[in-house]
Specification:
The complex is a heterodimer of chains A (61) and B (430).
Chain A lengths: L61
Chain B lengths: L2 E6 L9 H13 L4 H7 L4 E10 L5 E12 L5 E8 L4 H17 L6 E7 L7 H15 L8 E5 L5 H13 L29 H16 L8 E5 L3 H12 L3 E6 L4 E3 L6 H9 L12 E3 L11 E4 L18 E3 L8 H9 L3 E3 L1 H4 L2 H14 L6 H26 L3 H20 L4
Helix pairs in contact in B: 1-13, 3-13, 4-5, 6-7, 6-11, 6-12, 11-12, 12-13
The chains are: A little secondary structure (61), B alpha/beta (430).
């Protein structure tokens, strides 16, 4: 069977400095994984805002 | 344009989850699992690959590949996470789906196991693009997911926002009168959109509870017990929080940046606040001193909680561990050789499949809450979680005692026996 290539470290912010493991080629789960969450996931896990139209085309009468 | 391909019956890949397969066959041998059921559980039920187009911000169309592997549903709908990562592929999903089957079975949940994701580098896309990718993936999966069929959850690089987009898209494809009845197509949603209060602390609380139950079984108390934690993320932090509340003392922490120690105790909340203002790092915290990383696991303590990543306790360091109890908050932190050494030395390991199952139990509660049209309060969630975790712990502990085996083997035996029972009762169609 072929070895699985899934590896978190390749995309992790800590890859060059992480002290947790020297085997940075087969990590499939890690609490310290920090990829790109500053831009999307957000540390507070906020839900995206929904912008409402100022003058909606339909109005409730 | 969407290509839907469903493969039936591929053997799960070895590789990163080799330990899971080994554990399965080892446990199957222990319980003398019927050969036909071993055959069924050795393969995945369905493997779905979808290629779908998404319009990018610049007007170009890009094609993405998404996966969903459904390992087994003998006990109920498939359950498992969706991860977004450049190295996601069917092999990764296959092995992780299988592991979810054992985990949900052991937890006594009415679920099977599944896993999936999209092969992409999230950093290359805007939030709007990620939303459209998620929604188009949901549409491409169509009825291959569903609240009574396959229920995804957050995983690597997906979060409550991702789940909210999936739920909204899936519900939008239903007839109007059925839309709100499908909110439980995913779990891990934001609290305001059907999510469960307390979901954030569920896994860490589960780790704490398992430690507490083991301590009680041994007629001891958590007061003044010392513990060390590797990984100060969600699981490590919450487990430490509850242990500290119960009177135990955190004396060392290791994260991606380094290791710190204070034999007089480290204030969990103080350290957590410090990491928030220090780019997530524990280093430089004034309430502890820095130590060499290789000195972390050999620290004299009562409880060791590896809550970061796999393969941390191996033949290289298992001999030096002083803790009496290892509580696996992470997935696969102890490898087979490391475990053998620990067991020979009389050190107990609460296995990952049991120890960190609080998260999937909380997912089940969220699903139930949505399904029944209820909103549960935090104290109710925590009480139900404790009851469920106690049932699982007691079953594993008693089985291990009766059969004179370690907790991990006992956990796998119980998980597989429960699925075997369902097959025996129902038979094989036709």
């Amino acid at each position: 069977m072929k070895a699985n290539p899934f590896n978190l470290c390749a995309r992790c912010y800590h890859i060059t400095s992480c002290v947790l493991t020297h085997q940075k080629n087969s990590v499939w789960s890690c609490s310290e994984f920090d990829d790109w969450n500053d831009t999307y996931l957000g540390l507070s896990d906020n839900v995206a805002e929904i912008t409402l139209q100022e003058n909606p085309e339909t109005s409730v009468v | 344009m969407t290509e839907l391909k469903i493969n039936k019956g591929k053997a799960p890949s070895k590789g990163m989850m080799a330990n899971v397969l080994e554990q399965f066959h080892s446990a199957a041998d222990h319980i003398n699992l019927h050969p036909n059921i071993r055959k069924i559980l050795s393969i995945t039920n369905n493997e779905i690959v979808v290629n779908f187009p998404v319009k990018m911000d610049n007007g170009e169309v890009e094609i993405f590949t998404g996966y969903r592997v459904q390992h087994n549903n003998a006990l109920g709908p498939y359950k498992g996470g969706l991860r977004y990562h450049p190295t996601v592929d069917i092999d990764a999903a296959r092995a992780l789906a299988m592991w979810m089957t054992w985990k949900t079975s052991l937890a006594g949940l009415p679920y099977g196991g599944g896993k999936g994701g999209i092969k992409l580098d999230p950093s290359k896309y805007s939030e709007g693009e990620l939303e459209r990718i998620t929604r188009r993936f949901t549409f491409a999966l169509a009825d291959n997911i569903g609240p009574e069929h396959d229920i995804p959850a957050p995983d690597v690089n997906t979060n409550s926002q991702t789940m909210a987009w999936i739920a909204d898209t899936y519900m939008s494809t239903r007839p109007p009168a059925e839309r709100t009845a499908n909110q439980h197509v995913v779990t891990g949603k934001p609290e305001g959109s059907g999510g469960l209060e307390g979901r954030d602390r569920a896994t860490g609380y589960g780790v704490f509870l398992n430690i507490k139950f083991w301590i009680e079984k041994n007629n001891e108390t958590l007061v003044d017990k010392t513990f060390i934690v590797q990984g100060f993320g969600n699981v490590g932090y919450w487990a430490s929080h509850f242990l500290e509340k119960a009177g135990a003392k955190l004396i060392a922490v290791q994260d991606a940046f380094g290791s710190i120690r204070n034999n007089h105790g480290i204030d969990v909340h103080d350290l957590f606040d410090y990491t928030k203002s220090n780019k997530g790092s524990i280093l430089g915290y004034s309430g502890a001193h820095e130590i060499e990383n290789e000195d972390f696991f050999p620290i004299e303590c009562d409880i060791c909680i590896p809550a970061a990543l796999g393969n941390q306790i191996t033949k290289d360091n298992a001999f030096s561990i002083k803790a009496k109890l290892i509580a696996e908050g992470a997935n696969g932190p102890t490898n087979v050789e490391g475990e053998n050494i620990l067991l020979e030395r009389g050190i107990t390991i609460i296995p990952d499949i049991l120890c960190n199952s609080g998260g999937v139990v909380a997912s089940y509660f969220e699903w139930l809450q949505n399904r029944n049209g209820e909103l549960w309060q935090l104290d109710e969630v925590m009480a139900k979680l404790e009851k469920k975790m106690k049932e699982s712990f007691d079953k594993v502990y008693d089985y291990a005692e009766n059969e004179k085996m370690d907790l991990r083997t006992a956990a796998y035996c119980l998980a597989i026996k429960r699925i075997e029972k369902a097959y025996i009762q129902r038979g094989i169609f036709p």
